[in-house]
């Protein structure tokens, strides 16, 4: 139990997927201009990351390992993730049009989000069991969402500021991210005794 | 010859005007994560270029036989094949680089640059220009990541390719090889590129 | 239906070609990768064990701690006589887990330490991997040394601005030695 708590807080605060691990940057930069959009994206990503952790764990431990096909993990994982996202899209389209409205365009984008494939690969690397992998995936998504929401809050305010022409858009976004990353540094050493 | 001129155009755009890192701002994860040392950044650039080139070539070769409905799964299978080949070869022949790049080698498969070029260019253009495009984008990416690595390694570690540059009394600005330094360098560089671009 | 079969057929064809390319590459590179991994392991063992002429990675004594962890002791011999054992020990540092390889003589003295994995701050805590820091642990045992950093009243130098990392290493080695000492008979007899 203690290990699960450590994994969760570690991946949300100390080893935040966006601010420390550099994963999931494209959607982070693209969508964090608006608070509402960031929330939708964050929820979608958290859901996919959690489910992907579970599904890829099963594929790895019940298919790749017994048949000594570990070298195929990249191929199998990405195909599994892409299929899963497609599947989820179809279900949402049939069961809940309002949900599809809200999440619509973000869902297919998540397939190429490095955070999703990243967490699956990390679960294998760390040798997590099913519960640990799920917590890692869920925490990763929460951390990603948190970073996005913080960023969105700042960027919405930034609209009202004077930014030099050459810095508008991505440059200033990166510099703000660097300050966010800096402040998250304060969480390091959280578990040191 | 029109062919050669066009080839040159498609190649050069990836390095300058449509540089994936500084202009298109796609595939940003590796330039930030791997740029702590020039040797790592350069290695990453080469690996990504190899996959990009291989993928562009294959996608362009089979573009007339690829049904539109299943093109994305086919691209993904092709790209992950090249990525796995790169992963295995680096583990066998350059184990230190393989360890330094870690999960970012398999993550090349979701690098937006490669999928974007396959979808937007290689699936519609003949082989020769797809090669030019892949090479240009790859070289542009490698140059960008090497530039960032140079800045971060020199300021954050006082070295270039592992050799001390500023002498023993230089106190490295460690923040540069940590996460905040990566974002800061990237932001300032893109701002600089924008400024230079506007001057013209 | 025909459309579906055609699409499925093309996907299958692509997958088969991909699978062929990958298994060929795998078969070529696997022996090289296995060899490199083996060499790396032997190199790590050579750094922490007294000179040996056997194969320590093949002579292993396995013990279970109270927490249920299995620790493997690699036995080094010269001319048949046991010269030292090496084992992995995990400890928690500033940035997470640190994996140590500790080499001990039968008398319970440290012969060598290697840091196998760490996540400490580059330029600061990461210096724990340097021989400069690690060599101060050589020849120390439980009885004759105070196992803490000098700042906290012990005998070991800490890295400036990296006290937490330094203490983590010291603590990890001490715990490892404790475990070795309490199970010394079992290890040396079985080994």
Q: Average the pLDDT over all residues of chain A and give the rounded result.
A: 87
What is the number of domains of chain A?
1
Q: Beta-strand percentage of chain A?
A: under 5%
The count of DSSP E runs of length 2 or more, i.e. the number of strands of chain A, is 0
Largest interface: pair, residues per side: A-B, 43 and 42 residues
Structural class of chain C: alpha+beta
Largest sheet of chain A: none
Secondary-structure class of chain A: mainly alpha
Q: What sort of overall outline of chain C do the alpha carbons produce when their principal axes are compared?
A: elongated
Helix proportion range of chain C: 40-55%
The DSSP helix count of chain C reads 4
Counting copies of identical and different chains, the oligomeric state is heterotrimer
Taking all Cα atoms into account, the compactness measure Rg of chain A is 18 Å
Please summarize what this structure is.
The complex is a heterotrimer of chains A (193), B (200) and C (191). With 193 residues, chain A is an all-alpha fold.
Q: What do you see in this structure?
A:
The complex is a heterotrimer of chains A (193), B (200) and C (191). In chain A, 74% of the residues lie in helices and 0% in strands. Chain A starts with a helix and ends in a 9-residue tail after the last helix. In chain A, helix 3 (35-64) crosses helix 4 (73-95), helix 7 runs antiparallel to helix 8 (130-158) and helix 8 (130-158) packs across helix 9. Chain A is globular and about 60 Å long. Chain A has nine helices and no strands. Chain B is mostly helical and 200 residues long. Chain B has one domain (2-199). Chain B contains eight helices and two strands, in the order H-H-H-H-H-H-H-E-E-H. Chain B has helices at 2-15, 29-33, 38-61, 71-93, 95-101, 112-122, 127-157, 179-199, and strands at residues 159-160, 163-164. In chain B, helix 3 (38-61) packs antiparallel against helix 4 (71-93), helix 3 runs parallel beside helix 6 and helix 6 (112-122) runs antiparallel to helix 7 (127-157). Chain B is globular. The model of chain B has no long low-confidence stretch (mean pLDDT 89). Chain C has 191 residues and is of the alpha+beta class. Chain C starts with a helix and ends with a helix. The interface between A and B is large, with 43 and 42 residues.
